[in-house]
Amino acid sequence: MKAEYNEHGLLKGLANNDSASVEALYKRHFGMIQHFVTNNNGSFDDARDIFQEAMIALYEKVQNDSFTLTCQIKTYLFSICKNLWLKRLQQMGKFSSPLSSEEEAISVDTDLEELANKDAAFAIMDRALNSLGEPCKSLLEGYYLNKKGMQELAAEFGYTNSDNAKTQKYKCLLRLKKLFFAQYNIGD
Question: Domain range spanning residue 187?
């Protein structure tokens, strides 16, 4: 994949029927949709169909000059695919909790705005985590992202026991929360 295929470039390429842009979008995002659909009572073929419908919807949107994407492409595609797949599951009788008429009326744009807000919060969390410093950053990543146990973390970071590692993790988490909310409140 070439570096020049950034988000804006991909959308512009899609609007101009550029096959390299379409291929790049498939390579970047189909796996996420396949994972979602196959983990929710679907098959590979179902995922392909849903993704194709989402790509058509995105293509139709980018044809309109006034269309502005306010989130990442993957967020937009996932939102469309999720809604399409849940609707299909409901039609097949495999979705146990039918959507209420109020939920059906919620537009994709509302979902996208919510997902864009979550993306922004994750970006702030990433900045806060990167500004946290060591060993806190590695300790929190080890526990929350790598799912390591307290005993393993105690040995890795040289703490005398798992209780000391747990205490240090708690202190690091408090520092991370403070950094996150300081940056989050500035964005408001």
Answer: 108-188
Percent of the chain with pLDDT over 70: 83
Question: Is residue 58 domain-shared with residue 17, that is, in the same domain?
Answer: yes
Token pair 């189909």: residue: 30
Could you tell me if 80 and 60 are in contact, meaning their C-beta atoms sit under 8 angstroms apart? no
Whole-angstrom Cα distance, residue 70 to residue 90?
29
pTM above 0.70, yes or no: no
Nearest CA to 2 out of 19, 22, 24 is that of 24
H helices of 7-144, in order, are 7-15, 19-38, 44-62, 73-92, 101-105, 108-132, 136-140
Do the Cβ atoms of 143 and 156 come closer than 8 Å? Answer: no
**Mean pLDDT for the chain?**
80
150-179 pLDDT per residue, tens: 999 999 999 999 999 999 999 988 988 888
Last residue within a domain, chosen from 38, 73, 106 = 106
Residues 97 and 116 placed together within one structural domain of the fold = no
